Amino acid sequence: MPSISYQTLPGPVGDCLKAASLATTASVPVSSNTSLVFTTGHIGLDLKTGALVNHDAKAEFEAIFDCLDAALKNAGVAAGMAQAYRLVSYLVRAEDETMMHDIFRRKYPGHTPTWATVIVKAINVATMRAEITAEAAYFH
Q1: What is the Cα–Cα distance from 43 to 131, expressed in whole angstroms?
Q2: 29 secondary structure, DSSP code
């Protein structure tokens, strides 16, 4: 019987999660040749250094999408975020939603996943504006 597998992104971003005993993604087999891949919530971290990217909203969203893309690709989703079918974003400021969508459309033109946005009082890391999760299908 197939089981759920958990992956950790190599490098500083994955190391941050490993320290908390968390995975970057979980792959859930749904048939002999398809798995659904779920990411953990990602904040804006620099993939090379693990440093917070929060000096401005644009850079933060760029970093979040880069982390999500890398996490999905590490789990076997060849096109990364361009293959995600569902996103959930948690924003501290509702006015950042337009910028977030604009950055996504520029990075992944023509891709239209389902997307829910939740406005929250704060993100777990106090200086961050957003946290985003993604889901994608992995065909193997």
Answers
A1: 5
A2: E
User: How far is residue 39 CA from its own chain's centroid?
Assistant: 6
Looking up tokens 């999408």, which residue turns up?
65
For the chain, give every domain's residue range: 5-139
Q: Does domain 5-139 have CATH number 3.30.1330.40?
A: yes
Q: Which of 13-27, 56-70, 76-90 has the lowest mean pLDDT?
A: 13-27
Stated pTM of the model: 0.96
Give kind and range of the element (H or E) at residue 17.
helix 12-19
Cα–Cα dist 136/86, whole Å:
7
Q: How far does Cα 25 stand from its chain's mean position?
A: 9
CA dist 138 and 1 (Å) reads 18
pLDDT reported for residue 72:
98
